[in-house]
Amino acid sequence: MSSSIQKKLKKREISFETALQSLVNEAKSVDLELIDCELCTGFFRQVRDLTDVPPVIPLLLWQNCYYLGCPIEVAAPEVRKLSDRLASEIKIIPIDESSYRNWFRLQKLNSTKLSSADAVNPLTGESEQEDISKITELHLAQTDNQIDRIKAIISGALRNRASDIHLEPTAAGLRVRYRIDGILRPITTLPLEVSRRVVVSLKVMCGMDISDSRRPQDGRIGEKYLDKQQEEKGLDLRVSTLPCVSGQKGEAGEKAVLRLLKQENSFKTIDDLGFSPQTLTIYKHWLEQPQGIIVFTGPTGSGKTSTLYTSLQAISTDSVNIITVEDPVEYVLPGITQTQVNEMAGMTFAAGLRAILRQDPDIIMMGEIRDEETAETAIRAALTGHLVLTTLHTNDAAGAIPRLKDIGPDPGLISDALLGVVAQRLVRRVCPHCSEPYSPTESDLKTLGLRLEESNAHAWRHGCGCPKCFHSGYLGREAIIELLNVDDTIRQIIHEGSTIQLNQYLDESNFVSFRTAAISKVLAGITTVEEIRRVLPYSALARKVSTDQRFPSLTLVNAS
């Protein structure tokens, strides 16, 4: 950190005019790194009662006169009152509001504790969106060791709803990026001289081998943080390192990615997840069934875990035994027995599921179907009186059926056990703070396959960008859900039909596809066509419900 101007002035290394110009520039912005901490502490200790003190920053003490930076006009009687209390002269130096807000936050900074509390404007008392890059850099400037630097970066991520932190070695230093609402945002770049030390300290914190930087490593950090109500909550960080080119000629580096997992589910009820009224009714009906399997599909980061956990919370009562096997346990759920995969100890998904079946369960949640053994055990559990919830990696709901058949279980068992498939993606919501009406273009209508008279054009919205949404026009995310309800015809297709027949039937039936869900979100002003294009593949938007094609007749077996 830079030496304070007050100390240099006291030693007469610089003149008073130079000191003041160094602290406050022509734009009235204060260089907070040059503020003397001892001067601030001494000033406020003398004042004691701060209730009637205007918002000020002690800049300098020179010849028994305090020079105080203040973002508002201070009346002469207030200045005299403060002067009498301190037995010193007072001179008010005008400064900008941003400088005072940033200085105030630094005074409240506790580098030993993580916090997700919103930034509060000290002049108005209201919550406001911080300038992520500037505040993170200010916090980093107050740190003098690598652990505090890492905690400052994690705190910034928590305050700004980031799901991941990326630390990437470059020629300029260690680049820091946050993934917020699914989008990576550059935050700052740490100096080259501390880059390697930060990564090594991170590896120490999560128990990695710091002597080995030539192979990828995985680790975890358990921390506590203060939420918005200043209550202590648990935080798990999954850390992954990867050897890479550092950007420095002839030098290797390591990239680190931290996944932030708060030990609490942000969704309160199933109604908050993003289901349409039609799909919500069907989904709740599945959860009421005594047995069967419900499969959730989607890429990493599509919200499958949140949907699973919220569903378990909804059906968890004292009269049922719910057990999960996960990799890893992301949220701790009260009243539910949760187990974690540990492959080195022989605790795989398949082994865990076999053990769970001996624990008299009613409902089972299995993190993922990965192989034939896991799939076979899950299907048989669903056929023997258990409700099973699990995930699978496919592009859409219909793709889960051929994927299950490829893994290995008998198609007849799959058709009997499967209740339905939920596929989902997360789209960013239009920011409510800068939302404005938007007229759909011809390209927008073509993307959704709508005519103008069908488009409910008066309800379309988009965000023009504001500080609360980082000028992106989006704030928060919501699920777009494709739901495949397994009826008698689909059971017959699973047993003896093909993927082509399945897609033809879905196109003719009342299938709630990604395209249908996306159209409803856009027409309600929740998201935009631009965001739909970013999240959904072209194949999903190309699917259209056909009313003029007849599905080739199938001879249904045991159809009532």
Task: Describe the structure in brief.
The protein has 560 residues and is α/β, with parallel strands linked by helices. Helices cover 34% and strands 24% of the residues. It starts with a helix and ends in an 18-residue tail after the last helix.
Adjacency order of strands in the biggest sheet? 4-10-11-12-7-8-9
Instruction: Work out the helicity level.
Output: 25-40%
* SS strand fraction: 15-25%
Structural category is alpha/beta
Tell me the overall shape: elongated
Roughly what is the average pLDDT, rounded to an integer?
Answer: 87
Radius of gyration from the CA trace? 29 Å
Low-confidence region ranges: 545-560
Alpha-carbon distance between the two ends: 78 Å
Q: Report the sheet with the most strands, covering strand number, pairing sense and barrel closure.
A: 7 strands, mixed
Treating each run of at least 4 consecutive H or I residues as one helix, how many helices?
A: 20
Total number of beta strands: 21
Break the fold down into its secondary structure elements and pairings:
Elements: H1 5-10, H2 16-23, H3 37-47, E1 57-61, E2 65-70, H4 76-86, E3 89-94, H5 97-107, E4 114-115, E5 119-120, E6 127-128, H6 132-141, H7 146-159, E7 162-169, E8 174-180, E9 183-190, H8 192-205, E10 217-226, E11 232-245, E12 252-262, H9 277-287, E13 292-297, H10 304-315, E14 322-326, E15 337-340, H11 349-356, E16 363-366, H12 372-383, E17 387-392, H13 400-407, H14 411-417, E18 418-430, E19 435-437, H15 442-448, E20 461-463, E21 474-485, H16 488-496, H17 499-508, H18 514-523, H19 529-535, H20 538-542
Parallel strand pairs: 2-3, 4-10, 13-17, 13-18, 14-15, 14-16, 16-17
Antiparallel strand pairs: 1-2, 5-6, 7-8, 7-12, 8-9, 10-11, 11-12, 18-21, 19-20
Helix pairs in contact: 6-7, 7-8, 11-12, 12-14, 14-16, 16-17
